[in-house]
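This section describes the prediction task in plain terms. A model, or a person checking by hand, is given the sequence of a single protein chain and must write out its three-dimensional structure as a string of tokens. No templates, partner chains or ligands are provided. The sample shown here is typical of the held-out split.
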Amino acid sequence: MRRARLAMLMVATMVFAGCLGANTAEWGSNGIDVDFSSSEASITTNLGDGELSFENLSPIGCNVGEEIYPSKNASDRIKFSGFLSASMLYESHDPIDGTKGMDNAVTAAVAIQAMSKADAGNVKDGEGARIDIKQWNVPLMPETRAGTVDLDEIDQDTESDWYILGLIPTTENLNDGFKALTEWHKPITVHGYLISPTLVNGSTFASGQTAGYYKSGNASYSHTLGNECELNVGINNLQSVYVLVDEIELNGEVISASGNSDDEWKNGDMPFLGRAGFILFFLIVGIGGAVGMFILSQMIVRQGAKETMKILLGDEGLAKIKKVAADLRRDKKSGNISPTERKRQQDKQDREEKKQRKPPGKSKADTGPLAGFDLDSALSSKSDDDGPQDFGSKSSSVVVSQEAIKLEQQAMDRAPAVQNETWTPPTSTRASSPVSNVVSSEPARKKTEHFTGSVRKESPAPKAKAPVKKRRAAKKRKAVMPDQSHVEPEPQYEEKAHQEAFEEDEDFSDFSL
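The expected answer:
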């Protein structure tokens, strides 16, 4: 809610200061450009469909002498005084809406109830004519709805007189000053010149358009001037003309051609204070007041906190806190720093050193045995020698690697030569002690597991007089067949050897004899 109020305040301030407002037509080559003097005028406009130029125009002013009448090369300007009831600003014109000819040079149109300057100043707020505009595309032909006055219905029976003026600026300052016309229901006086339907050299105006131009002669529709050079409305109670504007007086302010009037109107100007005074007032009162209120609120909060601390801690506790604070200030002045500050400085120094320290490069000696190993290339390789091989059927989960095969081959090569000799059973159980020692000392071997497990358990270093493995002896027996006439089946001799060995032990272990 506070943000919404602040936004509304800022927008209102910008409007009051003139930062926001209605736009007028651009001045220059992309908009309208007027070269004006009281004797001749030229207009170039890009507000319509393409560029239009009006050269050698003849301004009609007020000739003051024994008689006051409108004429070319006049010495004074024509006045249009009254009460501003409605207005319209134009940034461009569209021919589809009915604009043509000089309409494309008009940048503002006004509806003024004709009266003297004094009478317009006496109109009270709310008592002036109210006009409800429906559409105002053609500068001299506004379309209005029911209001206190309907401009479409003005005729000889209307009780009030009206000016419908298509304003053409003669300078850039006047073109920008038309923004002041958006504020209705004010006294206004327009000083300017009518446009003659004939050019300076007397030839007829090229477009052939006569509506809105000066009408000479003594007819009822002819333009005449009053004693103060004001344009008379006529019997139809309505005058619709183009005006080359030279000055505007609006509610005590002036919009001049040069912009150097003492009472010059400025966009966003404020009564009494002025535009600069209002901006300064806003900065001092608005921003300064906000800062002052913030400081005051902080003081109130701190005072409340002190009172609460005094209640909770008491006078003795406050005195101790003050003493600690004073000691900290004294230590800080003397150069001592608190542990927290010291830790913060040390952390900062460590971070700086870490940034400056470069990571050491890795040498070849530190890379280890896997320095040249590439896991991606090893996994992606499809060579038969590198990967593990299946052992057994396809459903078996046991595999043998190439390293296991190599280790087994090395173990076989390093085996002692005694393994190659054929084992012969002893003729007597006590004849050969080495055989009995081998038989008695070797524990009964369990069922041989898979050879890969045996390979892993074997020591790579060769041993002297290694015991003969049953499996390899079986393989050798298959290779060299012994003479069956001298050798009996192997299981029988093994059983006898075991039995005799046990009997011998029993004989020597019986000390009772």
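For orientation: Residues 401-442+451-505 form one domain.
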